Amino acid sequence: MIRHRLVVLAAFACAALFASPLTCQCQLTWTQQTSPGLAVALVDDSSVWTPSGGASPKLLLAGSFVSSSFAILNGVQVVDLATGLSGPLGTGLFYEVDDIDVAANGDIVAGSVSGVPGALTGPVDVWDGTAWTHLPQANGIIYSVVWLPNGDIVAGGNFSLIGGVAANNIARWNGTAWQPLGAGVTGTVRSMVVTPNGTVVVGTFAGPGTGVDANGIALWDPAAGWTAIGLGATGQSAQVGTVHLLPNGDILGAGTFVLPTWSGNTVARWDGSDWTEVGGGIHGIVLAFTELPNGDLCAGGFFSSAAGMPANNIARLVNNSWEAIGAGLGSSPNHQVFTLTTAPNDDVYAAGFFASSPTTTNASLSILSTNCSATTTTLGSGSTGSGGLNVLTPDNQPYVGATFQATGTGLGSPALVLEVTGLAQVAIPLDSILPQAVAGTELYVQPIVTNLLAGLGSSAQMQIQLPNIPALAGAQLFTQMVVFELNPSGVIGSITATNGLQLTVGVF
Predict the structure, then answer these.
(1) pTM, to two decimals
(2) What CATH number is given for 28-370 in this structure?
């Protein structure tokens, strides 16, 4: 069934080339963000933030934001993605913030590389929706902070005491006090990520405490303690300064190291059993990763080439090879991309200290967008069956060469779920021609491709693999789910359907 579907998809993709009016040449463009307070800022980290209470997503920026008097203030800025306006969060944090992390409930933790005058030098602060709370400080620098699934906080950096508790460069806040993570680590912690099960991936150090030779990267499991990740980063002065968790669970490490089968070049992937080279390497320092809207991996940092080709501080992984994104961001030795974030509207934000164009210098924030963006539009409404109102919701956007995914909910169970995809929209009341169809059931798609889906209780998921044909940008597809509910004897008892979706294919 799947193989047949892919063949048909390739066929109708060719048809779409002729059926869709393609009026523009798609281009990726960098646009400098000129929000007040950001023009001369140094941005160290960024994240998409959805405040509690259902507010629209915002962009969080951490760093040092310089006023007209050149005083450092408001270490965390909030940028409204709809208007571009920015401002401090609450009363602000009056020191340079190096890292932020957002909890599932919208709370924020911030770690700083400098403290308030006369105090210890490693502040950790928590935003609870209304105000900042200052946790007991460290006697050194905080470079990385993360939330654990249970609401605890892990802070890493270069310190020996935090809140008066001895801890070697990494510690855990349990809600009332700091605790060491075993014997800690023997070098500076620069980057951390947390897996869904609560394991912490830690990068940049010689090895964790005692007993485990980790070579620059290791895992902390609350139950098992410290463990190495394969051979880790080997070689003289090996270190992993950036760690990143891919959507499939693989771990990326970037730094200075060698692998048994590969000499350095900055980026490696751990798939659960082996380290492998990524994309021919990036020749420089990688400081940040993000996934582009079409699923490609994007890397930013301080480098001039990737996979042997020119690339100014930013590159993307395409067909397992790094390539430049336009003219890149800056070419001066002082220009660097410190952080990358993909926003819900599919724009990519790059921040740090760089030039966003040949005529612009020392910008801190640029936006990467395309003039051929992907969109989804809802057609009509679903009908109501035994599982409730049938709703089809897109999980991502339809991009050339990527897999579009949508989820149907409120479906009856047991049921046969039929995905219907085509190139044209129709409006056929199924309840007028099929006696089993409940009132209000409509077919919104002229079928070309049909696919029987596996349901999970009251939901089902559909996927459309879009061919990697750039000329498909602008083509329109239509899709919907039709639900055949089964009675106890396995016979179709009633028919319902979800709303339809109109897809406009984009390029990124």
Answers:
(1) 0.82
(2) 2.130.10.10
